[in-house]
Design a protein that fits this description.
Helices cover 17% and strands 26% of the residues of chain A. By secondary structure, chain A is an alpha+beta fold. Chains A, B: Belongs to the FAH family.
Chain lengths: 433, 433
Amino acid sequence: MKHSFITTKTDSHFPIQNLPYGIFQIKGQSPRVGTAIGDYVLDLSVIDKAGLLDGTGAEAKNIFSATSLNRFMALRRPVWSAVRSKLQYLLDADTPDIRDNSALRSKGFHLMEDVEMLLPAEIGDYTDFYASKEHATNVGIMFRGKENALMPNWTHLPVGYHGRASSVVISGTDIHRPQGQMKPVDVSLPVFGPCLQLDFELEMGWFIGPGNEMGQPVSIKNAEDQIFGLVLVNDWSARDIQAWEYQPLGPFLAKNFATSISPWVVPLDALEPFRTAGPKQDPAPLPYLQTTKASAFDINLEVSLQGEGMAVPHRITISNFRYLYWSMAQQIAHHTVGGCNLRPGDLLASGTISGPEKESRGSLLELTWRGTEPIHMENEEKRVWLEDGDQLTITGWCQGEGYRVGFGEVTSRVLPVEHHHQTKQLIHPYIKK
Amino acid sequence: MKHSFITTKTDSHFPIQNLPYGIFQIKGQSPRVGTAIGDYVLDLSVIDKAGLLDGTGAEAKNIFSATSLNRFMALRRPVWSAVRSKLQYLLDADTPDIRDNSALRSKGFHLMEDVEMLLPAEIGDYTDFYASKEHATNVGIMFRGKENALMPNWTHLPVGYHGRASSVVISGTDIHRPQGQMKPVDVSLPVFGPCLQLDFELEMGWFIGPGNEMGQPVSIKNAEDQIFGLVLVNDWSARDIQAWEYQPLGPFLAKNFATSISPWVVPLDALEPFRTAGPKQDPAPLPYLQTTKASAFDINLEVSLQGEGMAVPHRITISNFRYLYWSMAQQIAHHTVGGCNLRPGDLLASGTISGPEKESRGSLLELTWRGTEPIHMENEEKRVWLEDGDQLTITGWCQGEGYRVGFGEVTSRVLPVEHHHQTKQLIHPYIKK
């Protein structure tokens, strides 16, 4: 097994087997591209300037001194793989180039805790899918009953919709509870006020690499070449706003106030050892969605919640990325089959990932069965929806033999409605019965 | 009435009363910002370099030598108004600065037919609304019957959804017929093939100026200060793909293959003489959507269609922007009320604009009543949906006394399915009855 001269514990998310990319900033300096190794960030612009990335095809192009990964993403897989191989070589315990160069080491390495992580890409478009059969079934049962749980289209195509790119934010950004219009069942007219059914959604997302021209679909065979890497995603949702607004054109304000992502983009190459078969698809999809290649990935996912009155976070969900019915490759092939173009830096996300067990449900909507079964946590705290002050954290990792390839975490705190819009209490001011 | 030394006919779309902004390119040169006057484009980077925009607040900032209007849009209304006043002064028949400077004239003016128009902005996010009551009612009757035509939420909020920014293209870009998955009523399983119900949608769009911070809603009172200017929009739609995919998350592939816009962005200031009251709103909207200001604009809209076998275009729709039930200001206030941030260059569109008359319907879906009442044109041509080779053109203008403030046009031709994906004929290859 590979080892780095930067030693890492066996449960570190960032051993030499991972090497994710991110945009980091040291106070007062311009943001640039780094990779994570153990507790450190390695500044790739320093490594590039030292000539150590020569021959990869990405060298000396200001790719690594850029303030986003878009230009690196726009290159193709052979270049990504060459950079990754070179970095694994340079960080290897047996390679002296950086290990024995103290000037380079002190210039290139920063403790993670000393840097700020920024959004990894300028996201042109953000698309969210609905690819978990368990999630779609749970939601369907709640809203339409057991007989009509899945819409007729669901097993034939990966249902998706366009989300809001402007409000995708990096882990650590606190989220204000949104206000909006909703219609409680017991009143005849809609009301305006703070969302009372604030929820998270456990998702994963992937950044698009080279992209495709308009009118030139990406075949399922080539779809994975579009995947630069993956992140954790929390697609915040306002369930009461959503229930009132979503027909017939889908969710809008219920989702566009915020979407949080983790900062480190884990390359698809780092996930290869964890490739596995996804769920059997029955009925067989149409030919443009068919592949014999194993297209799922075994990524452990956990969600934890910590209320203001709680000493430690409480784990509320244990799930896995491989539960997804529709693969990333299928989602990309479907997205582009009508000619829609993807661009470098576009973000596609899976939709809520729920598994077959009750504890593997990826949203409070499902965990509390639309608010009817509260979650009980320590200190007699319980939840049906998110409360102000709650810290919601998603983490994920692949378990190798003696090492992990991890995603770090995406974490955010729920703040009250912004003060200057805040109504005096959590009441609905315009209720007319 | 103001006159320019560039003479214009009374039906010109671009007299001195208009002065829209666009991005133009002369072959071999870098794109830059221009305004339209009569049959000419005036290069504003030339005017700026000559010092003629000094004092406007936009001068000498490379605003007009930029390849998009985003940086100009990011400035605020006082600067936009100052630039507009200065241009109206400089182009006035009585102002000698440009009129009598032959070097400046020959450097600054280009015949419209000699330049290529490009997308006016880098569009971060594109949002489409559903703001015409007549359109929503027509569609509702067709899909759900007369009693349940409008969804309960429709009269309480401007329904909207996020569209695809990457596939917004400029007028003149031909559009390939998309392929996709659909389920004809007479078969039990979905099929894949070319869209057989290709449609246009008559819309108008507006570009966002300064934008707002996440979590900081734009009040209805300040909403119009976010509107830099307006364009014509054709939101191409694949009705058969839409019918099968849209539940429960809204349209996706049915819309994201292309959206066409006109190249000249008409400033809101140019539309002020045509401001008028919109339709009476009953029930009264919630307070965050209430305004006493007249918020509609009297903009004549026409759609024409020319098949390959037709000598001239046939006008199929006569409508007006003022028919819209929800105003632009209401759409902006609603969009941001939950905290969603808008950014300079974001595009918001109205959704299909249909009027009260049969001939004022803004889509073939409505004009042919879901394909049951063909449109009859000259040469015995008729249409239920768009055919390959059809040229679809939307135009629009405000009628002043002796002048027009016009939008030019958005025009595109329908091309067959891209060759390398094309099935041999317009058949569905995977039909299983």
